Structures are given as structure tokens and as C-alpha cells.
Amino acid sequence: MLSYRVVVPAHLSPAYQRLPKEMRLGVGMHLLCLAEAAAAVHEIGEGETPWSNLAGLDAGDHRQLFGELWLSYFVAPLDGELELLDFGDASLTSRVAPLPPLRAPRRHDRPRGGGSPASTVARSRDLHAVEGGSHVR
Prior knowledge:
This protein is of the alpha+beta class. It has a single domain, classed as YaeB-like fold (2-Layer Sandwich), CATH 3.30.2310. The chain contains four helices and four strands, in the order E-H-H-H-E-E-E-H. The chain has helices at 13-18, 21-43, 50-54, 118-131, and strands spanning 5-7, 60-66, 69-76, 81-89. The termini are far apart.
């Protein structure tokens, strides 16, 4: 069976590590379950279906509530990854997760004629860190 890696980017790692141990383990297990389910959906070749869309398993950006946290993540079937984009305390924000933050383009996102220069990618990551970042209570 195809397996997906769960990626927690370096800029989120300090906030992720500050979560209480039980919550951090719960979030980690939830992300692993999502990655396994996404891998299964994409391996059997069903493509995007209404249920996989509702479950947050289709390729692309997703937002969902997990307990008292909102999670924003990106499913990248071509890279075999589920990347945590951001997370925060749902009690400090609306009950709906904010729009996904800016992310670096992936190999399959780039136009055939080239891609974004490295400085643009770095700026989009830096912009996210300044404007939003992770919110942990």
C-alpha cells in the first residue's frame, strides 16, 4: 500500500511542541489517520468523490476542527505527503478554521515553463509567519 508522510514544517514545530502531550499525540494520530486514508483513496484510483471531499482527503488545502483546535493541511498525492499548514485554538477564533496560509509551490503545482523563483517562495513563507502563524493557548 502507498504510504504518505506527515510533514510538520520547521516554522510550526515550536508551537506544535508546546501543545500539551495528550493533545500533541491526538493531533499526530489524527494526521496519520488522514494520511493513511488519503493514501488509500488515491491508491485505489477513485479520484475525488463527494465522500473523499467531505472527509478532507482530496488533493489540495483542507481545514477542519479537531477537538478544540482547528487544523489546516495540504494533501499532495504526487509527493505522497500530508503537510500541516497551520493550527490554532478554536476558542480564540471563530469555529471555522481560517483560510489556508500561503504555502510554497510543489513540483506538480509549477507551470511547465518554469516555476516561482526561490525568493518568491521564501517571501510567501516569511509573510505567513509574520501575518498569521500558529496560535496556541
